[in-house]
Specification:
The complex is a heterodimer of chains A (about 100) and B (about 475).
Chain A (H helix, E strand, L loop, with lengths): L4 H10 L6 H18 L34 H6 L17
Chain B lengths: L6 H9 L5 H14 L6 E4 L1 H16 L10 E5 L26 H8 L3 E6 L33 H8 L5 E6 L5 H7 L2 E4 L19 E6 L2 H11 L28 E5 H5 L5 H16 L3 E5 L4 H19 L18 H12 L2 H14 L4 H25 L2 E5 L15 H5 L6 H6 L3 E8 L5 E7 L5 H16 L1
Parallel strand pairs in B: 2-3, 2-4, 7-8, 7-9
Antiparallel strand pairs in B: 1-3, 4-6, 5-6, 5-10, 9-11, 10-11
Classes of the chains: A mainly alpha (about 100), B alpha/beta (about 475).
Chain lengths: ~100, ~475
């Protein structure tokens, strides 16, 4: 499958990434090549086959409903690139 | 100091007063310095490791030491180690420090392993050569112009070059076995869910496994025994009892072994690797095992299925890196979307961005069923076909890789040819099965060759015992 620059731009927005014009061209080419390659799967008849989703045999693993504090407030804030005493700081996003 | 191949050798020498944890740690630290050009470690915990060594020497003297006392290990830069930096060889986690230990790391510490440092890898474990690290490539100690493999390249090169006795890595499509093969050592990927993934940076969650890199089967068995098993912090981890692998390493059974016909016939596999693989199979036949060629009809579909599913899972897993709560944040953002975009575009490397793009595409409206669901269906067919083979054979053998370690830069500009490096290893991850790569001689240039054994779910004990048997056959 061939994808065009517009698709690359659309996907980049969904993935929250941005690219230069040159990078977009390169991605158009390399993603098209990879998609051509994975299109090989269309040769296989998968009618009636259930998708394989879970790889673990464990189901419904539950524990006692006892609250636990695994990460303290200050520890959670510790790695933040920008913070105040209580919160993560981010740019304003409501007009 | 002599080169040790297993913890048992080390413990014997410690008990005989010939060495100590402190001496050993100094030895590995000096090797790390001597071989710093390999670029295997991103960070070395010199003072901390020495202090720990001193503490463990005292414990040994008091008869209170844990099972891993005397073992100096390295951690791939994808495993949380409390109060230590962690960044998956990516700029996007610049400055990040773990707030807790991964369960596997905690269990190493509880048994008195000495953690010597954090090892270089492909960014977010995406790669087969360690060339995708934000901190530069790792070199193969046998030939410095060649790669050590990936993505656990630093972890494998460190064990290869005697910079530590063992490493914990991760294996999503061969990232422990392929570098082990390229470096002439042992790489074990256990059954999916055998080891808790708590504290392992996620790449593709339905494939990811913590893997073990060692110089001996005994150490692989011991490490698996220590780190595997139930964990309150991972609801997908297996609740099955962990067998005492270390006590079951002897085998005298005659096995039925299938090998992938294409792997010893295909033009895509190098002649020397074919030759060595056939030689190993011949040796098994001579010992009275049944050895038969097996055709795997879905071979050509393994890698496409793998790339659709892993990139899809990665695009979702890596959405958490947004510059808000931890790691790198780009300057100059005007609103939230631009903060995310700038941070992620500057923070992630090229291959990671490409895989996020591919994964986002196959999950996007209009393409989801054609790519993602389709690949999940093919995954089931591949698993069923593989399980069928393993119901007829005890082990399924292939070479670990199609070529020996390639030159740095050899696959630049041709990602598909690089992806083929994982052809034989990916199957075990698609099916959640245990597999191991063990050394199988060297080619005429002295470059290591690996042979891979795969078996049924949770049959690690047979896998380890038979691997040990095969290694002994080689030397006898």
């Amino acid at each position: 499958m061939k994808i065009d620059k517009k698709t690359v731009e659309n996907i980049a927005h969904l993935a929250r990434l941005e690219f230069t014009e040159e990078e977009k061209l390169e991605l158009t080419d390399s993603l098209s090549k990879i998609l051509d390659w994975v299109d090989k799967l269309s040769e296989i008849n998968t009618e009636g086959v259930e998708p394989l989703i879970h790889m673990s045999e464990e189901t419904n693993v539950l524990r006692e409903d006892i609250p636990q504090n695994t990460l303290s407030h200050s520890d959670a804030l510790d790695n933040a690139p920008k913070k105040d005493s209580d919160y993560f700081r981010v740019p304003k996003f409501l007009g | 100091m002599k080169r040790y191949h297993s913890l048992q050798e080390i413990r014997e020498d410690i008990d005989a007063g010939k060495t100590s944890c402190v001496e050993l740690t100094r030895y590995y630290l000096s090797n790390i310095k001597k071989k710093s050009s390999l670029n295997a470690f991103l960070e070395v915990y010199e003072q901390e490791a020495l202090a720990k060594a001193e503490e463990i020497d005292k414990k040994i003297a008091a008869g209170k030491a844990g099972r891993l006392a005397g073992m100096v290990v390295g951690l791939k830069d994808v495993l949380c180690h409390k109060d230590h930096r962690l960044q998956a060889s990516s700029k996007i986690l610049d400055g990040f420090k773990s707030k807790f230990n991964a369960t596997a790391v905690q269990r190493l510490i509880d048994e008195d392993a000495i953690i010597i440092g954090r090892q270089n890898c492909d960014e977010f474990a995406m790669g087969s050569s360690n060339e995708n690290s934000a901190f530069g490539p790792v070199l193969n100690d046998v030939d410095n112009s060649r790669v050590p493999g990936g993505s656990s390249g630093g972890s494998a090169a460190a064990v290869q070059a005697d910079l530590c006795l063992a490493s914990l890595g991760s294996d999503t499509g061969g990232s422990v076995r392929q570098p082990a093969a390229f470096c002439g050592i042992i790489g074990l990927k256990p059954t999916y869910s055998r080891i808790s993934r708590y504290g392992l940076i996620a790449y593709a969650s339905s494939f990811d496994c913590i893997g073990i890199i060692t110089r001996s089967i005994e150490d692989a068995a011991l490490l698996l025994e220590v780190v595997a098993g139930r964990d309150d912090y991972d609801s997908t981890v297996s609740s099955r009892e962990v067998p005492e692998y270390t006590k079951m390493l002897k085998t005298s059974k005659k096995y039925k072994i299938g090998y992938l016909r294409e792997s010893v016939e295909s033009k895509g596999v190098s002649d020397e690797i074919k030759k060595h693989t056939l030689k190993a199979l011949e040796l098994l036949k001579k010992q009275g095992h049944i050895v038969e060629p097996v055709q795997f009809k879905l071979l050509d579909y393994i890698l496409p299925t793998y790339y659709i599913l892993t990139t899809a899972e990665a695009s979702s897993n890596l959405s958490r890196y947004d510059g808000v709560r931890y790691g790198y944040r780009a300057e100059g953002a005007t609103d939230m979307v631009s903060l995310y975009k700038k941070t992620r575009s500057q923070g992630f490397g090229k291959e990671v961005k490409k895989r996020i793009m591919l994964g986002t595409f196959v999950l996007s409206a209009g393409y989801y069923d054609a790519y993602y669901t389709k690949a999940q269906k093919v995954r089931r067919l591949i698993k069923e076909e593989t399980d069928r083979i393993l119901s007829q054979y005890d082990f399924f053998i292939t070479p670990t890789t199609t070529t020996v370690a390639f030159k740095i830069g050899e696959h630049e500009g041709d990602p598909l040819s690089m992806y083929l490096a994982d052809l034989f290893t990916v199957q075990a991850n698609l099916c959640g099965l245990p597999a191991i790569s063990i050394p199988n001689g060297c080619d005429s240039n002295g470059l290591p060759i690996g042979i891979q054994l795969m078996t049924k779910s949770f049959a690690e004990q047979e896998l380890l015992a038979f691997s040990k048997y095969m290694l002994e056959l080689q030397t006898n």
